[in-house]
Amino acid sequence: xxxxxxxxxxxxxxxxxxxxxxxxxxxxxxxxxxxxxxxxxxxxxxxxxxxxxxxxxxxxxxxxxxxxxxxxxxxxxxxxxxxxxxxxxxxxxxxxxxxxxxxxxxxxxxxxxxxxxxxxxxxxxxxxxxxxxxxxxxxxxxxxxxxxxxxxxxxxxxxxxxxxxxxxxxxxxxxxxxxxxxxxxxxxxxxxxxxxxxxxxxxxxxxxxxxxxxxxxxxxxxxxxxxxxxxxxxxxxxxxxxxxxxxxxxxxxxxxxxxxxxxxxxxxxxxxxxxxxxxxxxxxxxxxxxxxxxxxxxxxxxxxxxxxxxxxxxxxxxxxxxxxxxxxxxxxxxxxxxxxxxxxxxxxxxxxxxxxxxxxxxxxxxxxxxxxxxxxxxxxxxxxxxxxxxxxxxxxxxxxxxxxxxxxxxxxxxxxxxxxxxxxxxxxxxxxxxxxxxxxxxxxxxxxxxxxxxxxxxxxxxxxxx
Length: 466
Fold this sequence. Notes:
Blueprint: H1 3-16, H2 25-32, H3 41-48, H4 52-74, E1 139-145, E2 151-159, E3 162-170, E4 178-180, E5 201-204, E6 210-213, E7 217-220, E8 228-229, E9 241-247, E10 250-256, E11 261-268, E12 275-282, E13 289-296, E14 299-306, E15 308-316, E16 319-322, E17 334-338, E18 344-350, E19 358-364, E20 372-374, E21 382-387, E22 394-400, E23 403-409, E24 417-423, E25 425-432, E26 438-444, E27 449-454, E28 462-463
Antiparallel strand pairs: 1-2, 2-3, 3-4, 5-6, 6-7, 7-8, 9-10, 10-11, 11-12, 13-14, 14-15, 15-16, 17-18, 18-19, 19-20, 21-22, 22-23, 23-24, 25-26, 26-27, 27-28
């Protein structure tokens, strides 16, 4: 086989495999020996005796050879081979994926622009800003977790006007905390305050969408970078929000209508488009109406206490309807919790405004259609908070002779054990994020408060260091 024959063979093979692998080194060497100045067609004809048509083909071949030489030099292996898209044997460049910025739905934020694809390498990620330290004197008021690691706490800090709201967040399950902006308002006394201002509770649905309320309503859709005061269409301006929870992409709020009823408003978590349910929950005749909102799975319940259990509503097939709540006939208040759409528990202060009989536990396994008393009376005089991460595990807090105490049952309410020593304090935001991880806020009458966490289904509770 002559050198010319080998050259032609290599040339054809290279054309067939172009884009899949580099040209052979010997072909590159042959091409490099071609004179930089192209011979004239006349000289080619004289030397080879080729016809003009053949000369044209020869020139085309020479141009192709020169192109191959350039490609061969470019494709000289220095790393991974060329990228083949869709199986085509052509050299293709895949655009680098730049991280897109999802626009915020917050009314106070500017729209962000999604960068277009680029063939240049994506820029290195912008370093995260330095986390702000927790403000001095931070006292927790309310807490919310959306996962085992991601959580937020609303608190108060000293300021020129006395105490101002502050918010801190954790991304490691409460081991470390950093400050984020808080709504520019005051600290509310509690969600039951219909005449005051400010915020006293905090809830997040995910890393972006959150609400600070009680009695005002503030919303963020960018993780707390900015907050905007919100209102609910169809209700008087600044109607006090008394309870709020989020689950399964929806947020629900219990709002006083300024007359005789509580209304339930619902919105998708990423928007501020509230819809009022047709059902109305009566306030009651007592001086201190206290509605409670519970969500679990696809289920939801509102229980209204005004000294005694007054009325209720239930989320059924995505709509709020009238519900006959537990303990309507016990002449006392009740607190409610759910571990699923079907399993609920309620602690009822039986005979509180009549023949006092202590705090009793009731359970439902049909979504609240029926309840039955479970076990002996609880160790509490009156329960004020309750949580249940599963059917057999129940944690309750409330009054005892020495102040208030936290108890837990791990057999569905048959037996109870104290899990937090008695103290002259009140409890708030008792709840579980997972079957084992729970939180509670404990506050004394002097204004000092602390947040405690459990990682063993409520058996032990440890103060959180902010």
